[in-house]
Q: What sequence folds into this?
């Protein structure tokens, strides 16, 4: 199997213990280097823009190149571009059609989306629809890449219910760096159930992708595996921006697209966020959450009602996740600038979901372990059930339409992980033997697994036969080998 060193020509970082998730070492640990500047960015302090000095962009919505019957056709080119992330400077990024932040595709259940992707880069790529129930040839398997100068057609039947999905590169050994440099976008799937609710819509329904980054003195994004100096926080590609809002309700579709960093989000005045959805769409009921945790790849839709604040109010979305508050504690600021009519509301019941006791009967129980080297070796490896990813090996075979219980344990002492399954949405039943709360009881495709902890999942393998992967979505970890293949037969 080709190694990351031979593909990218760069060495893996010496540390295996990034501090970006709960339970990992604190700053100053012997296992991790100190940040290079007060901002941890590698830039001179004067180059880092002042917090809340730039507006937050709203991602561009892609328009179909053509429509016919029940199908929308898109044509997209993956290419290099530059983005004005830092004041007065251009930063090289990788993009879908030149968009940074990545674009949005709107889709509807029952209406097919076909995307012809042209590879205008100098590296092979694979486009994965994260959270999508799609056929194996359109899943973006890490080894199913297409080369520079070639194209690949991806077909999304959209047979699943509404969900805030996203798409990103998944070429093995390169996925981590490619996503870090910009290859991700939103795929917002809706249906009649969601559209029939009086939730905020249109310009009051805003995708917000959050992540971290590090820049050098020449304004370039710096990439190295397990880099704990990524402490410049971006929201929709802007450094700690502001976003002007009206005094009314907004729906924010939050996505953590970072490689490693866990976020814990809250409003600066202590008002709880109203969470209405997780990875796989609406929760059964809205949940009031004082702090919203998001690990890499996870999504959560929240509603914030700004009508409780007078015009002129400035409200910060804070991050209390791992790291120095002075470096990573602020994500963006909401500025209430006007009044507005508001016909929207958040219903007490959002959708019907079966209770845990009413889920389909399971036929198999599996034990899954996640782990990685944490002894400081220069090229750490990631493992699932003690094995490094081998694309020639089928690790798990499941029956189409069957339901299983997966008990997933993080065997590391300090390093957090999470688990993402392709093809399916699952239900999280327990954490360390305790039933999960309502914010985590909806449909999920990515789940946090803290060091030494265990989660229990109910998984139904519906949709398609074929080979798919499951892996840690801390992408630096999956590129180290923390990935496995399951076959649906």
A:
């Amino acid at each position: 199997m080709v190694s990351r060193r031979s593909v990218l020509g760069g060495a893996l970082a010496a540390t295996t213990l990034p501090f970006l998730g709960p339970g990992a070492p604190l700053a100053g640990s012997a296992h991790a280097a100190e940040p290079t500047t007060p901002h941890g960015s590698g830039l001179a302090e004067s180059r880092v823009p002042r917090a809340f000095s730039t507006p937050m962009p709203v991602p561009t919505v892609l328009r179909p190149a053509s429509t016919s019957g029940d199908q929308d056709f898109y044509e997209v080119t993956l290419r290099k571009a530059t983005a004005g992330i830092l004041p007065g400077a251009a930063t090289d990024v990788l993009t879908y059609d030149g968009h940074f932040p990545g674009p949005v595709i709107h889709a509807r259940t029952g209406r097919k989306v076909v995307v012809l992707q042209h590879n205008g880069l100098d590296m092979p790529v694979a486009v994965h629809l994260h959270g999508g129930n799609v056929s194996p040839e359109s899943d973006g398997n890490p080894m199913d890449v297409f080369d520079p100068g070639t194209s690949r057609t991806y077909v999304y039947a959209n047979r699943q219910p509404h969900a805030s999905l996203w798409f990103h590169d998944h070429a093995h050994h390169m996925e981590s760096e490619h996503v870090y440099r910009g290859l991700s976008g939103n795929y917002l799937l809706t249906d009649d159930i969601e559209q029939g609710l009086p939730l905020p819509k249109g310009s009051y329904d805003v995708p917000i992708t959050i992540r971290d980054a590090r820049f050098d003195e020449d304004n370039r994004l710096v990439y190295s595996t397990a880099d704990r100096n990524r402490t410049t926080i971006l929201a929709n590609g802007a450094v700690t921006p502001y976003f002007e809002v009206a005094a009314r309700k907004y729906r924010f579709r939050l996505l953590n697209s970072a490689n490693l960093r866990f976020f814990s989000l809250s409003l600066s005045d202590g008002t709880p966020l109203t969470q209405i959805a997780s990875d796989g769409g609406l929760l059964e009921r809205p949940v009031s959450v004082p702090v919203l945790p998001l690990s890499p790849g996870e999504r959560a839709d929240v509603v914030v009602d700004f009508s409780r604040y007078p015009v002129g109010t400035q409200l910060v979305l804070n991050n209390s996740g791992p790291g120095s508050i002075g470096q990573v504690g602020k994500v963006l600021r909401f500025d209430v600038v006007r009044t507005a009519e508001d016909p929207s509301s958040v219903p007490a019941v959002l959708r019907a979901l079966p209770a845990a006791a009413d889920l389909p009967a399971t036929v198999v129980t599996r034990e899954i372990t996640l782990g990685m080297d944490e002894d400081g070796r220069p090229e750490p490896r990631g493992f699932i059930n003690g094995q490094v990813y081998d694309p020639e090996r089928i690790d798990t075979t499941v029956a189409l339409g069957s339901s299983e219980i997966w008990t997933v344990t993080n065997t590391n002492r300090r390093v957090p992980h999470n688990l993402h399954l392709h093809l399916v949405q699952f239900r999280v039943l327990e954490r360390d033997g305790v039933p999960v709360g309502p914010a985590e009881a909806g449909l999920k495709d990515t789940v946090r697994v803290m060091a030494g902890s265990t989660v229990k999942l109910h998984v139904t393998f519906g949709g398609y036969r074929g080979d798919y992967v499951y892996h840690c979505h801390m992408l630096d970890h999956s590129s180290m080998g923390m990935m496995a293949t399951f076959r649906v037969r």
